[in-house]
Amino acid sequence: MNDHAQRPPAEIRFAGELARLREHDTDDRPPGWALSLRAARRFVLGDETLGISRKFVGDPSLIDRSLVTLATNRGLMLVGEPGTAKSLLSELLAAAVSGTSTLTVQGGAATTEDQIKYSWNYALLVAEGPSTRSLVAAPLLRGMAEGKVVRFEEITRCPLEVQDCLLSPLSDRVLSVPELSGPESMVFAQEGFTVIATANTRDRGVNEMSAALKRRFNFETVFPIADFETELALVEAEALALLKRSGVTAPPRRDVLEVLVTTFRELRQGQTARGDATDRLSGVMSTAEAVSVAHAVGLRGWFLRGEPGTAADLVSCLAGTAAKDNHEDLAKLRRYLERRRHGDQWKALYEARHLLPG
């Protein structure tokens, strides 16, 4: 993979760490796994002695339960509000268990069974008829044949009948290809195969999973970060990394980030740090959104004025986050800034509220 890829997969970004973990991994491994459970845990949660960075901020017991679920060959379902790093966690777990995280299905209203299981090279199909040469393997078939983890993002955004194509692979561990004959018509899951799915609890228009499919998954909820300092440190680190990749050499201002994270937390919870009630926005004020806003603030300040982003930049960038679902959210954000105008940075935000559209 070249150096200009916007976001290489986890196994490429952390190739050195995975190599060190494999080198020092002396524990027993579940069949088909690239790492033992303890080494996989270190990959996700970090290990200073081996120089392994912490990649997921959350409850360590969630990682333990998730790894044990994957070792039992049951499907793992990660649920929670948008922006709680469910997709990141599924990517990290797949990279640790299988050494690859790219066998991924992105769920949506237009997702079909062909995109999940297999399709055909129609030129070869017409010329030669059904054969393994004309078969085009999709992530599920490849994962079963190679003994890898398959990731299914936003599974509940797929129609119910499409979701249920996972029933046989998850229960019988076999995928039928009825167009072929003989042994090639059945693909049996190899050791190491399992499925990690994600679903958010906030989006509209999702499809409820069937009871039969739910029984084949263990459900784990990923919660927002509870501690302010932890969330602030995460937003600062992620924003700094994104700004460097964007060619910005000035680090984000700590005081601006503190205001940003405080704003997101209070608008998300509907309560200020002092316990005063405030309007909750209908949009998702997640940590991932806060990182995106911090990135935009840094880009705006650097490329427009050659300096780190200011409170005025923050107000302008907040507008695009606040007004996604409901235009009334801008009025709520304006009222929030008017109530929260005490303190240097908060006063600067209050004075810049005219930058909000509408």
From TrEMBL:
Family matches, as SUPFAM superfamilies:
P-loop containing nucleoside triphosphate hydrolases
GO molecular-function terms, A-Z? ATP binding; ATP hydrolysis activity
In this entry, which stretches build a coiled coil?
none
Entry's SMART domains? AAA (SM00382)
Q: Which residues cross the membrane?
A: none
In this protein, which residues make up the domain named AAA+ ATPase? 72-227
**Could you tell me which Pfam families the record lists for this protein?**
AAA_5 (PF07728)
Alphabetical list of InterPro entries matching this protein: AAA+_ATPase (IPR003593), ATPase_dyneun-rel_AAA (IPR011704), CbbQ/NirQ/NorQ/GpvN (IPR050764), P-loop_NTPase (IPR027417)
This chain belongs to the protein called MoxR-like ATPase
